[in-house]
Amino acid sequence: GVGFAGGETNRACYGGGSDENDIWYVTVSTLGNAAVFGTILRGNAHRYGPAECSDGTWGYIMGGEYSADIEYVVIDTTSNSNTFGSLVTGQRTAFCASDKTIGLSLGGFPQTTISHNVIEKINLGSTGNASDYGDLTAAYFQSGTTFSKTKAITMGGKVTYGVSTSNNMDQ
């Protein structure tokens, strides 16, 4: 997974992967190795490539390996993930942006197509399902993303697995 950070404990966390169901964390202000934070409810191969983001208090794990599951953890408390809700479309390798209020899952690779241009939104801080929020200008996944309080910007990405890449930029 990509990861999320926040909380009073100054933690950075990541979870998911092709053979991984653990959530790991590091304390950013101290030198040291990562430690196990907890376990993703639907781990192992089912969570390859989730979109992960944070509102500073909760960390969110959205999709991965064509799953539509959304899970969350409280960043200051080591524990297993909790059920949050569902995405509209199960996917993997989407990218994520968030502020203190909303989280976005952008693009991704659903099992039924090469890639898609869907943007899904969750309301952070209270459990519930995602809703369709709009579309990217093109369909792609594994994009670089940066965001601020008012804007998300995606750069590049893949259109298909292999050598097909995108030079799109959305904001």
Structural description of this entry:
The strands form four sheets. The protein has a four-stranded antiparallel sheet, with no helix packed on it. Strands 5-6-7-8 form a four-stranded antiparallel sheet, with no helix packed on it. Strands 9-10-11-12 form a four-stranded antiparallel sheet, with no helix packed on it. The model has no long low-confidence stretch (mean pLDDT about 85). By secondary structure, it is mostly beta strands. It is globular and about 40 Å long. It has no helices and 15 strands. It is about 0% helix and about 45% strand.
How would you describe this structure in keywords?
single chain; 171 residues; mainly beta; four-stranded antiparallel sheet; 15 strands; 0% helix; globular
In DSSP terms (H or I, runs of 4 or more residues), the helix count works out at 0
| Shape type | globular
Weakly predicted, low-confidence segments: none
Based on the structure, what is the oligomeric state of the protein chains? single chain
Strand order of the largest sheet: 1-2-3-4
Q: What Rg is obtained from the alpha carbons, in whole angstroms?
A: 15 Å
Ends apart, CA distance between termini: 23 Å
The total strand number stands at: 15
Give the mean pLDDT. 83
Structural class: mainly beta
